[in-house]
Design a protein that fits this description.
Number of strands: 0
Structural class: mainly alpha
Low-confidence stretches: none
Shape: flat
Number of helices: 3
Largest sheet: none
Helix content: 55-70%
Protein name: IS630 family transposase
Strand content: under 5%
Number of domains: 1
Length: 61
């Protein structure tokens, strides 16, 4: 089985920007979902958990 792919460790600035996108929610749905996926992956969550979080198929994540 292949190693799970994760995002690299986020800088404080990157993390804050992603959190800002998620909190505001005034951006496009695609941008919001991508920010959620990145934050969840950086937090160590698995694909199945992230897929449920953003209501997407695991192949999308």
């Amino acid at each position: 089985m292949a190693e799970p792919v994760r995002v690299r460790r986020l800088t404080d600035e990157e993390g804050q920007k992603l959190q800002q996108i998620v909190r505001r929610g005034s951006t496009s749905l695609v941008r919001y979902r991508r920010a959620m996926m990145l934050l969840a992956s950086a937090g160590g969550n698995r694909v199945s958990v992230i897929a449920k979080l953003v209501q997407a198929d695991e192949d999308t994540v």
